[in-house]
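Subject: for your reference before the review

Hello V.,

The reviewers asked for a structural picture of the protein, and I figured it would be easier to keep everything in one thread rather than splitting it across files. Below is the amino acid sequence we used in the manuscript, unchanged from the supplementary table.
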Amino acid sequence: MTNAPADRQQRCRALAAASLTLTAIVLLGASGCAHPGYAYAEPEPRPAAPQVYFYPRQGQSPERQDRDRYECYRWAVRQSRFDPSGPQVAPPQRVQVVPTRPPVADTFTGAATGALIGSAVTWSGEGAAIGAAVGAVAGAISDIHREHGRRELERNLSSHAAPVASGRAHDYRRAMSACLEGRGYAVG
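And here is what came back from the structure prediction:
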């Protein structure tokens, strides 16, 4: 003769433990698949491209100098696709990637999930403590990987943005100088 209530209670515990374990595994796995949670901070504004200095070699009047400077400016912008007075102008900028979650979020999530799994499997405080320790280590590893990914993304974005802006500013300056020299000015 078997003890039906005890068997039933043991099966319910096993089913509850399996359900909790499965839920925790799904939640922990889903957190690893989630977007790393980065946002891009606005870079600090930088001054526009340096001024092109010139002086007349052929006695051009101030009105003529203003008109020549304006016409050369427009021509240089068309040639270089760079407008030093535009709002999008940014000589080499450093892109900053900001995490949207706290740096230790996965460590805490891992510890809580590990404690839940450990207590569900062993039904003891010792199992919860072991699970929490293992989960915290796994979460800390995830946090470290996220931080490395953030730094790598920031480095890649910054290194790709700088040469483009710098090259176009250089092209603008060369075009502006060529135009002004062609109109009889010395460019410095």
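For the response letter, the relevant points are probably these. The chain has a mean pLDDT of 74. The two ends are 105 Å apart (CA to CA).

Happy to draft the paragraph if you're swamped.

O.
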